Amino acid sequence: MAFYDVKSEQSSGLGKPIMTLDRGALADLLIGDRDWLLTRLEDMEVIVVRQAFCPERPLRSFADRLDAMLHGPLAPARLPVPEDYLIVGDPKVSALAEYVRNGHISESDHVLGHAPGGVSIMAIPGMGSSAAPTEFACTAAAWDGLMPAEQRELASHTVLHGFWHDRLYHEREPRHEALMQWMARQSMELPLVQPLPGGRHGLLLDDTAIQIAGIEFLESEAFLGGLRTWVTQPAFVYRHTWQPGDLVIWNSASVLYRQLPRPDNPMWKMAQGRR
């Protein structure tokens, strides 16, 4: 199986599929229907409205109408618990900072049906100056950057996905009862390559991906790791630095996202050995 070289000349010159709008476009965006929005997300997989300051009620109504996954302060946040410990995010101060940064993995709202409408939304209403940056990796752009032979190889594979695999990224040593509850949730085998409206293709390889069907485990791990490295290279990633009032909408079928810790701010990290 091929290992994708992120230094390949294929990645040079590929633009990030991002559309940036000003606040004057907000009204049309909020009243547009799902098909109207998905059409715009086919090529521009991430839409950014700078300083939208979208009121909570219209934003929630917009998300409900689109069957969208809503992130940010309007979504429930996990509170620190006594087993957590504090790590400073500046690598010059803490040797663990880079470890924690690398622990922030790319996720998808699409694979396990969290965003059945194919749309995800994140809004920071008035507190953008304290929000951590968010990275969006556009898998359709990464697919377009592959050679035809590589595309044919990927299209032949299916991947086993499971909710429990996602949870292990967040809590490496769960209680046995919790692990059994996670594993009781549905696992599914899905095509690695997913056709998208408009004729493009996206790659399903977020943190729920366990193993490529029919491939020995170690070879599968190496292959998925290489493919994730390909997808998350700078040519295909948009990093959003939040400003107060920003609104970001993305195509959950073709975009992986991850929250990054702020380098100048403490962060919470789950303690090792928690039971």
Automatic annotation (TrEMBL):
Residues 29-256 form the TauD/TfdA-like domain. Belongs to the TfdA dioxygenase family. Keywords: Dioxygenase, Iron, Metal-binding, Oxidoreductase. The keyword Iron-sulfur does not apply. The lineage of its organism: Bacteria, Pseudomonadati, Pseudomonadota, Alphaproteobacteria, Sphingomonadales. It comes from the Bacteria. GO terms for molecular function: 2-oxoglutarate-dependent dioxygenase activity; metal ion binding. This is TauD/TfdA-like domain-containing protein.
